[in-house]
Write a structure and sequence with these properties.
It is a single chain. The protein is an alpha/beta fold and 456 residues long. The protein has 18 helices and 16 strands. It has helices at residues 2-21, 42-54, 66-73, 91-100, 121-127, 143-149, 158-168, 183-191, 200-205, 235-246, 261-267, 271-294, 320-328, 344-350, 356-364, 373-384, 399-410, 445-452, and strands at residues 31-37, 75-80, 131-139, 172-176, 194-197, 210-214, 253-259, 298-303, 307-308, 311-313, 316-317, 338-339, 412-414, 419-420, 424-429, 438-441. The strands form 4 sheets. The protein has a 10-stranded mixed sheet, with helices on both faces. β5, α9 and β6 form a beta-alpha-beta unit. α2 (42-54) crosses α12 (271-294). The longest helix has 24 residues, at 271-294. The radius of gyration is 25 Å and the shape is globular.
């Protein structure tokens, strides 16, 4: 009887398998799109997605961001980013470790902690016959794109990084950084088959071949000020063109896209600019996810190199003057003097028109005699798009203190203007996304990507 039952079980398994119910092995992916938001810690991801969900942010009628869609449909993991011998990292070491799977040190590009040259995932993809690209809305010789495309002892060696990028023959190089590509290097690029463009309209005309797009002298404009630059392509537009060009290779491609100015806004402790940069990132994710949905052999990975700022909304205890002001404005206070802030604060952040980092630079260059309360309230009001009251400020020449007061009034607190060692969130979308679950280190991303590509 036992033998007959065992036989029936075996026959059942055989039939189940041959009827197509057995789990099929997922084939390797052909394309990888790696989106890196420089400086985007978990608190920044939450700051943005919560605003979209609950604050009726402009451009999100369904109250769902592309980032949330990716997280809901994809796989998340938490990872650390320490270097060989430091707890906190910079973008150079982090990019090198992510791109190569080898421990490095701050300031190093494409070399391990002993300054030995190490191969990046982009270089390996190129060896395998895939097309390759790096895009940044900062500049293409900055630390993150450089970590995938160059090997130098310091991230400050911008001209050498540019030379190596052209020598390597990366198929799409797109972003800022024109000053680092001199006329001789531009000519070398043209001789290697690159189409060299400097404007959005020129970019739109490129239909095939290698692309060198350099749209600003150094860093590209902050997202919050892009309205001043109608012929400069957005990160989403650069990405769309890269996918059009790289997708022509039947062997597939590897593309790294950097949202580089999330970091800049967080360094400046500027939540209005940060919100604009996150919207720019999200518009890029919409393009990327649409491409992946249309090409199911594509894996998308979203992550950050490090956290910057550790900023978030906090509640505040108000003095009598502020209690009177808030009560007059109809705001609800708890315990008579505690402001927890409403979601309307996001709508106020959306009104901002200028980067506070650049405005701060302008104000610091003014003579002290110019820095009066009236003058600062006018300039800050124009930048923020809302009236500004600096009656609680005692030293108007202390621009950093003035900007800190602006943040306090908005209910935003920042732990630092520097990088932190906060753990980060990686999100994978598409085939083999499960490889990026769990807890890992940023050097573990490289072998997991090789696994997804079937190179192990």
């Amino acid at each position: 009887m036992k033998i007959r039952l065992f036989g029936l079980v075996i026959i059942g398994i055989f039939c189940f398998t041959n009827l197509g119910f057995a789990q099929e092995k997922v084939p390797p992916v052909k394309n990888i799109i790696w989106v890196i938001a420089d400086g985007m810690g978990p608190e920044i991801m939450g700051f943005f997605m919560e605003g979209v969900r609950y604050a009726d942010l402009e451009g999100y009628p369904d109250k769902v961001s592309s980032m949330e869609t990716m997280m809901q449909k994809g796989t998340q993991g938490l990872y650390f980013n320490k270097t060989y011998d430091t707890i906190v990292t910079d973008s150079a070491a982090s990019a090198t470790q992510m791109a190569t799977g080898q421990y490095s040190r701050p300031d190093y590009i494409g070399v391990d902690y002993n300054k030995n040259r190490v191969q990046s995932i982009l270089e390996l993809a190129q060896e395998k016959g895939k097309s390759t690209g790096v895009i940044s809305d900062a500049y293409v010789t900055d630390a993150t794109p450089a970590g995938f495309t160059a090997h130098v002892r310091s991230r400050r060696m911008k001209e050498e990084i540019a030379e190596q990028q052209i020598a390597l023959g990366v198929d799409v190089i797109s972003g800022g950084g024109l000053k680092y590509f001199n006329s001789d290097l531009q000519q070398k690029a043209k001789e290697k088959g690159y189409t060299f463009v400097k404007t959005r309209s020129e970019l739109n005309k490129v239909k095939k071949g290698k692309l060198l797009g350099l749209f600003s002298d150094v860093g590209m404009p902050m997202a919050i000020e892009m309205y001043k630059h109608p012929n400069t392509p957005t990160l989403a537009q650069q990405t769309e063109k890269a996918l059009e060009l790289l997708g022509q290779n039947p062997k597939g491609f590897f593309l790294m896209v950097e949202a580089g100015k999330v970091d800049w806004a967080a360094h400046a402790n500027d939540p209005g600019s940060l919100l604009a940069e996150m919207k720019t990132l999200d518009a890029t994710l919409a393009i990327v996810l649409a491409y992946a949905d249309k090409h199911p052999d594509t894996l998308v990975y979203l992550n950050a190199d490090h956290d910057t700022g550790l900023g978030t909304f906090v509640y505040q205890y108000l003095n009598n003057q502020k209690v009177a002001e808030k009560t007059k404005q109809g705001e609800v206070l708890y315990n008579g003097n505690t402001a927890y802030h409403s979601m309307n604060m996001y709508k106020e952040l959306e009104k901002q028109k200028r980067s506070l980092y650049y405005l701060g630079q302008e104000l610091r260059a003014q003579p002290d005699s110019m820095l009066t309360q009236d003058y600062l309230e006018r300039r800050l009001g124009e930048a923020l798009g809302v009236p500004v009251n600096l009656s609680g400020v005692h030293n108007f020449q202390d621009i950093s203190g003035v900007l800190k007061k602006i943040n306090e009034d908005r209910g935003v607190s920042w732990a630092t203007g520097n990088h932190s060692a906060a753990p980060l969130i990686g999100v994978a979308y598409g085939p083999h996304a499960e490889l990026f679950s769990g807890v890992y280190h940023n050097t573990d991303i490289f072998p997991r990507m090789k696994n997804a590509l079937g190179w192990e």
